[in-house]
Design brief:
Layout lengths: L8 E12 L7 E12 L3 E5 L6 H8 L7 E8 L3 E4 L5 H8 L2 E4 L11 H12 L4 H14 L15 H12 L6 E5 L7 H18 L2 E6 L2 H7 L2 E6 L2 E7 H8 L9 H11 L12 H9 L4 E2 L3
Parallel strand pairs: 3-8, 3-9, 6-7, 7-8, 10-11
Antiparallel strand pairs: 1-2, 1-4, 4-5, 9-10
């Protein structure tokens, strides 16, 4: 993404810290100085293992969790600059209408049909006529190839169909940025691949910015423009998809740093390496102490 300037940044996160109470009395730090930027029109993948802070980060980005420190700043054409961490409720509500979220389960309302689920954001957050809502619902369902299932209830859908319906609802208000929470979780490889293709297709057709949270490496490499890796609450790596691909395909004997070996093990899902080797843990801890993430490509 060389040549980008500040006007291209739609979302910036600065030194985010989130702590939760623990039984022992000492707070557990879940995010510890996380910083990154999302450029307009790109798909950024946030990856990492279970418990690395991905879900907490996403909850912060949509305003569901208030961090103890740091800033989250949006720069949207219709709303201008919004610092979410200090915004009032009215501003937060306006922001939420400009973002879409595909939750891990699809989060469809079981008592509503697919069409009614997609129509809900329009009915709640716009003043358009019902005839217009019907047209928009049909368009959104057609985009995700779910129009034939418009009158079905969520219980009648497969896992992949629920994700597609959830994505249609997430795009109902034509958001400027889409968040995906583990979009391929629980899906078979073929269905997961089709969801990834849909994410790429919508990003191109709708010119929407996307942030995808996942630990599915096949999915990550199919959809990403850029990637960041979280571990133990910090950004361990940041780079383009191509740079991460080079590291994943590298000769492990020729990796020059412990950081490279950590990322390599995660990307390939290897059972042995610094992530699981107790002898390498102290060196791993040293890497995570640094304030800045190790950046690929220099």
């Amino acid at each position: 993404m060389a040549g980008r300037d500040a006007q291209d940044v739609i979302l910036s996160v600065h030194d985010l810290v989130v702590q939760f109470p623990s039984a022992g009395g000492t707070p557990t730090t879940v995010l510890n100085g996380v910083s990154f930027e999302v450029h307009r029109g790109e798909t950024l993948v946030v990856m990492g293992g279970s418990g690395c802070g991905k879900s907490t980060l996403l909850a912060c980005l949509i305003g569901e969790i208030q961090p103890q420190a740091g800033r989250i700043v949006y720069n949207l054409p219709q709303l201008g600059r919004i610092e979410l961490t200090t915004a009032d409720h009215r501003t937060r509500d306006a922001l939420r209408r400009r973002i879409g979220i595909l939750f891990q389960s699809g989060a469809l309302f079981s008592s509503l049909t697919v069409g009614e689920n997609v129509a809900l954001p329009l009915r709640e957050h716009s003043d358009v006529d019902e005839s217009v809502i019907d047209i928009v619902v049909a368009i959104k369902l057609q985009q995700v190839r779910m129009l034939p299932h418009r009158d079905k209830y969520p219980a009648q859908l497969s896992g992949g169909q629920k994700k597609r319906a959830g994505l249609a609802r997430a795009t109902a208000l034509d958001p400027e940025i889409l968040f995906y929470d583990e979009p391929t979780a629980g899906l078979d490889p073929v269905t997961a691949s089709s969801i990834d293709a849909l994410i790429v297709d919508l990003a191109r057709k709708l010119h929407v910015t996307s942030l995808v949270v996942t630990h599915d490496m096949d999915s990550a490499f199919r959809v990403a423009d850029r990637m960041i890796m979280l571990d133990r609450g910090r950004v361990l790596r940041a780079g383009t998809r191509q740079e991460f691909e080079q590291l994943r395909n590298a000769d492990p004997e020729r990796l020059s740093s412990e950081a490279d070996r950590i990322v390599y093990q995660f990307l390939r899902g290897e059972a042995t390496g610094p992530l699981t080797d107790a002898e390498g843990l102290s060196e791993y801890e040293k890497i995570l102490i640094g304030k800045e993430p190790v950046r690929l490509g220099g």
